[in-house]
Amino acid sequence: MRCATAVLLSALFLCGCGRSGPRVVVYCALDREFAQEILKDFEKESGVQVVVRYDSEANKSVGLYEDLVREKATPRCDVHWNNEILATLRLREQGVLAPYASPSAQAFPKEYRGDDDTWTAFAARVRVLIVNTKMLPDRKSWPAAINDLADPRWKGQVALAKPRFGTTASHAACLFALWGDAAAMGFLRALKDNDVQILPGNKQVAVAIGLGTIPLGLTDTDDALAEIAAGNPVEIVFLDHRDPVDGLSQGALVIPNTVALIRNAPNPDNGKKLIDFLLRPDVERKLALAKGKQIPLNPAVEVKDLPRPGKIAAVDFSAAARKWEESQRFLGEVFSGRD
Q: Fewer beta carbons below 10 Å: N end or C end of the chain?
């Protein structure tokens, strides 16, 4: 049923543009409110029509990944603007992505560029804890590390987005890569046993904390900052990913956006133009100054007063992508019936 629906939606999406002339087709997992203005800027500057398809909040990034794999033989999409990195690396392994060494990508550190030029990472978000300050006024009592969320004192008081989707799924796979299988599985089991509350998406988690439905929630910086901007009594904590064995600090988890050209894309030249545009310093600066305050990865882009962690966890994203299937199976077993 999902396959048939996706095909129908794709047909309507591609046939409903109503204009002829140069165009580029984008599958975009970043929230429409942050991506739409950027894509309109490109359209205005280049004269190339942007036909964009967004993913749903609850099915974030997973649905587009599945469609791109299914369409591999006859691609409909030119550029994939992903709101995270692991699905992008998995698409590379599936042979869906084409190499393109964008001139705009050269300014980015090596770790944020594919060694085969199939992807570039930019504009990162951070996985954070959002806290309702009215429900928990004593800041000294707040969890400081993600490990603390499994403590019985927080039983039933922590919200989490559907574990097998979006950045929550990426977060779990990163734990497998960062801590090793046994430690990651142990933590996730303990989180489930601590009666973690499962909500449809990261936005719903942030909203629930803002409303005071529950005091604590794991979400992304863009959704958490939206609650702060709305004037709700919340603050964010850049959770440390403390090593479960030696207790040493490893820092907060940063998950970047990625952009990639699709192999055998119908409009490859326009796709390359869009990639060049998205990786420009002014675009990262604009995303940093928007409500989501995404962190620029280009060292040349400086934005004052941007919330960012003091230490970033050194995650091997390629290793995390290789752990994807295993982490998905485990999440399905542990959180069966809850997502």
A: N
Q: Is residue 9 part of a domain?
A: no
Question: Can you give the pTM of this predicted structure?
Answer: 0.88
Same domain, 192 and 326: yes
298 and 327 assigned to the same domain: no
Structure confidence at residue 4 (pLDDT) = 44
Number of H helices, E strands in the chain: 12, 10
**Would you say residue 264 lies in a domain?**
yes
The answer to whether the beta carbons of residues 315 and 174 sit under 8 Å apart is yes
Q: What is the CATH number of the domain that holds 176?
A: 3.40.190.10
**Quick one: 167 and 222 in the same domain?**
yes
**How confident is the prediction for the chain on average, in pLDDT?**
92
- Structure tokens that stand for 69 in this block: 């794999």
Two tokens, residue 137:
């006024």
Kindly give the residue spans of alpha helices, DSSP state H, lying in the chain. 2-15, 32-46, 62-70, 86-93, 166-179, 181-193, 202-211, 221-229, 268-278, 281-289, 317-322, 324-334
**214/159 Cα distance (integer angstroms):** 7
pLDDT at residue number 59: 53
The residue range of the domain holding 292 is 21-123+256-307
Is the pLDDT reported for residue 60 higher than 70?
Answer: no
